Amino acid sequence: MTITLVIIFGWLLATxxxxxxxxxxxxFSMEEYxxxxxxxxxxxxxxxxxxxxxxxxxxxxxxxxxxSKGISITYALAxxxxxxxxxxxxxxxxxxxxxxxxxxxQPDYLEDRYGSKGLGILVAVVGVVFIIPYLQLQIMxxxxxxxxxSGGSISWQTxxxxxxxxxxxxxxxxxLRGIGWTNFMQAIIMLIGMGSVGYLISNHYFGGTQKMFxxxxxxxxxxxxxxxxSGNGMFWYASTALLSGLGFWMxxxxxxxxxxxxxxxxxxxxxxxxxxxxxxxxxxxIVGFAVxxxxxxxxxFGAKIAKPDQAxxxxxxxxxxxxxxxxxxxGGLAASISTSSGLILTAANxxxxxxxxxxxxxxMTDMQVAKTGRMLVPFFTAxxxxxxxLAPSMLVNLLIVGYSGITQFFPGVVLGxxxxxxxxxxxxxxILVGLVALFTYQFGGVKAPFNLQPGFIGLILNFITVLVxxxxxxxxxxxxxxxxxKILSAPRAE
Length: 494
Description:
The protein is mainly alpha-helical. It has one domain (2-392): Up-down Bundle (Sodium/glucose cotransporter), CATH 1.20.1730. Helices cover 78% and strands 0% of the residues. The chain is built from 23 helices and no strands. Helix 1 (2-22) crosses helix 8, helix 3 crosses helix 17 (322-360) and helix 17 (322-360) packs across helix 18. It is globular and about 70 Å long. The model has no long low-confidence stretch (mean pLDDT 86).
């Protein structure tokens, strides 16, 4: 077990040092701290965007759901196709607007496009609210990974504290630039780990994936059909895939990542090649199926798995040498920290920039915003840690709830780029209606029709509300619309 922990914590130390060093000899400013001076080229932007996307969920949640519930987990593969197609059209435009208008955060764009500080503050507040469960997911994931990889010799609480002290250090010192360089390192080991784990597990237990699937069909045939083991049918699958695909790029930290690219050409090329990263998720899904097949053959093996999210590492400890477990544990920890560091910085950004400077304390200078954001980094980390310790939950469920809330920004963002019809009152009303519907169906005991994803129902009602209310309310002034049209219609920057 010693070699396992040496590899995991050695990698954590190395990435922390790189993250701190990235901020050396840089002039501290709001733009530098939150969007890395808009300087990321193709490679650094690629690894930053990928690492912000593929998180603890990609390591633990995917395998856990595939093991416990079955084929409906492939919604996570389906929504990537939707999201990257959407990003090809909106990503370059977001980057262009951010550069032309000096946007630092997602609410900056919505506030400016619709001429409403209230909308900007609402989006910031909602963003922070839904970032917390997503960040909680990463915290819990990092703790579980180290706990499982160590065979229980390190508690998940201890692992969480060590990991997030490291994350806070380089985020506090270097901001998004430090996150970018640690993501570059972390992407390497994430790809190695995610790409190899499916082959390693299925080959060890079954001699390959073909025999593994044959065994799974024999013992758990409903695992590979819809409705699957958990009863998730086609309507749940399709609505969840569509919801997640539309909401993919609505996360505030991905807006900041998009602003960080040095030009829209970098963003456009990344929209084309980012789907290659999605392929690394397939072996992780295969791990979940392999463990389910193993339990079918040997029910006693299933007793070792207390929670579905433990499936991957229980199988690794059972089948692989310590150094392999260490490499894969480091990959999982890297996935967790890379995403969580961006979330921590973004929560600080939204609070300092849009809630405080644009709302509570409007005389704040940009330098004060940057310094306040830096001070908020450990604060938001502490809040998420408290939630993780006091209110643990299944990782997939946390992710889906987060997506459901964040996707309510989609109508306002997209209509702001491609239409002149939406108004500030329409967009605000749509977000509120969508959120009310989400919480009613998710937590209010009301059953969703056709087993649709609650967030998807909220999104439909959101869109309808925006269109209807906008048709009866004061339009955005022509001068503002012309300014946006001029920027968006200008020749592409290469």
